[in-house]
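Ticket #4471: structure export looks truncated?
Reporter: QA, pipeline team
Priority: medium

Steps to reproduce: submit the single chain below to the structure queue and open the exported record.
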Amino acid sequence: MDETTLRHQVALTGFAPGVQVQHVPGPGLVLRATDGMGRGLEVQLTDEAARLYGEGPAVSVTLERLKQAAEAGLPEARPDGSFERLVFVGD
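Actual output as written to the record:
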């Protein structure tokens, strides 16, 4: 998915003010939501999941999961500065 389309999907998801979502390097598509206060969560969408469910729907589910986590309260960053990562795999 190109960056423009991804930015559009992020905007459509409707994250709360202050929550930033970015694409970070990693296998498949890795999206990170942070709140600017040292909390965040990453969700990795594997290539297999994107093929199985379709890229657009799989990215939408990934973004919804990040939004739910942000609304519930993102976990603190680990001591090394990394974030917890969930993985969305194909069945």
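Status: closed, not a bug. The export was complete when the record was re-opened. Leaving a note from the reviewer for reference: Strands lie at 20-24, 29-34, 40-45, 85-88.
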